[in-house]
Amino acid sequence: MKKQLKTQVTCFLNTFGEMEQRSMFGGTGFFHQDAMFALLTDKRFYLRGGGIVTDALVDKGCKKFVHVKKSSSAVVNYYDVTALFIEDDVELAVLVKASRDHALNDRAYKAGGHHRRLRDLPNLRLTIERMLKKSGVEDISTFYSMAPEEIFRRLQVTHGNDLDLCLLWKLAGAQQGRHWKLIEEDERERLLSAV
């Protein structure tokens, strides 16, 4: 069943343009022009939400993907479309195109530096934005020009050495465009060794 589902989903997704596959969230991520829009685990097929895609997927009863790690879990913006795929739902192709296009637009928007405020980045909020500005990281371009561990060290100088290490993971996740809980353990160790 697992191998058959993967083969069928891969063939289906390849009809929407050139794809690249990468290991993601314990499964396989499907990328079009470097923008991930689909995820396949051992038994489930997920589509990336966003905008009207999310509304349509929720209306069809699709549930969000929960990535479970050793000591935590994270809910990400991917919705289970396995039943739609198995039942040959006529709207699935439209949803795949919309998901792919939304992922491409989102990637282009973020790559273009169109975030106006630091708090618009993943994992960052007003409190962290204020801390960053007080530490000399005034804007998006400055934020991206520095390594997360360098920013964290600046924050320690300004706000004390007892900062929660989760802040370091949040900074790294913000630069990578992903939730901080999804940062792998080896990446966390590398970041920690640099501070």
Automatic annotation (TrEMBL):
Pfam families: TfoX_C (PF04994), TfoX_N (PF04993). Residues 115-194 form the TfoX C-terminal domain. It comes from the Bacteria. Residues 13-102 form the TfoX N-terminal domain. InterPro entries: TfoX-like, TfoX-like_gammaprotbact, TfoX_C, TfoX_N. This is DNA transformation protein. It comes from Salinivibrio costicola subsp. alcaliphilus.
